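[Discussion] Sanity-checking designs against the backbone

I'm trying to build intuition for which residues belong where. Below is a structure token string of 255 positions. I'd appreciate it if someone posts a full sequence so I can compare it with mine line by line.
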């Protein structure tokens, strides 16, 4: 277990494997790095797998100041994480909010990304009304977490239901500052992505099927994999199929 200091905020991270290129995976909103435990043994054989907890989540710090939570702060956290593990470039990916932040990271630091793994996520919205609807839902989640606490997560998808947090305070701030979206920068950046990209979505993850199709079409040369029998946490629901898809992609991306 290691911690990275970003100003007054400590971020938990861990490295698995001691050879090969780096893979940085970011969890979804209200999940933690533990959601990737089914990938550790497989992905760390030929790579150095870096897992971490976003601010407000898991074993990282939960700053009280809401301004500490934002897309920009998260992108800079990923950049600092690469610096901390001693690499200029990495394969970058994540699930849901983690996938969106991976796209945002590429947009800000394209020269630091060698490939993208975009899992059960969307690229944001061009339409202001659609973005407002998303944000209304995110703010509603924050309000529910304030009133119901961490018990709210028990009725959600596996990566969230099995996560461990010290309190709901960080998740409330993360929902308001990181889960909400301000602009169309990420979705507009898709045609400019110039690294091998794999878009993964669970066959039963209905809210993100169209988003996966859209990203696969808009990102030049992107591959798409639909995981049968999987919902939003496709890596947990079908780890064998998921892991094979990622390994096959990585072999091709670095052939």
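Best answer:
Here's mine. Compare freely.
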């Amino acid at each position: 277990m290691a911690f990275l200091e970003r100003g007054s905020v400590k971020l938990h991270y861990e490295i698995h494997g001691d050879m090969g290129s780096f893979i940085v995976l970011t969890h979804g909103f209200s999940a933690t790095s533990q959601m990737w435990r089914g990938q550790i043994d497989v992905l760390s054989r030929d790579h150095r797998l870096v897992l971490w907890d976003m601010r407000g989540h898991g074993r990282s710090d939960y700053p009280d100041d809401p301004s500490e939570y934002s897309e920009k702060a998260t992108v800079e956290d990923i950049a600092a994480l690469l610096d901390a593990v001693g690499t200029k470039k990495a394969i970058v990916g994540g699930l849901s909010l983690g996938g969106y932040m991976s796209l945002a990271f590429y947009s800000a630091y394209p020269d630091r990304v060698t490939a993208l793994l975009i899992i059960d996520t969307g690229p944001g919205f061009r339409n202001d009304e659609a973005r407002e609807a998303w944000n209304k839902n995110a703010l509603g989640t924050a309000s529910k977490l304030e009133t119901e606490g961490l018990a709210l997560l028990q009725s959600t998808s596996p990566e969230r239901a099995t996560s461990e947090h010290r309190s709901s305070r960080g998740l409330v701030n993360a929902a308001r500052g990181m889960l909400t979206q301000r602009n169309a920068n990420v979705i507009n950046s898709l045609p400019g992505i110039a690294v091998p990209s794999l878009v993964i979505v669970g066959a039963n993850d209905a809210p993100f099927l169209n988003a996966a199709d859209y990203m696969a079409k808009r990102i030049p040369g992107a591959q798409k994999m639909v995981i049968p029998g999987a919902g939003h946490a496709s890596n947990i629901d079908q780890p064998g199929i998921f892991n094979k898809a990622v390994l096959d992609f990585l072999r091709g991306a670095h052939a």
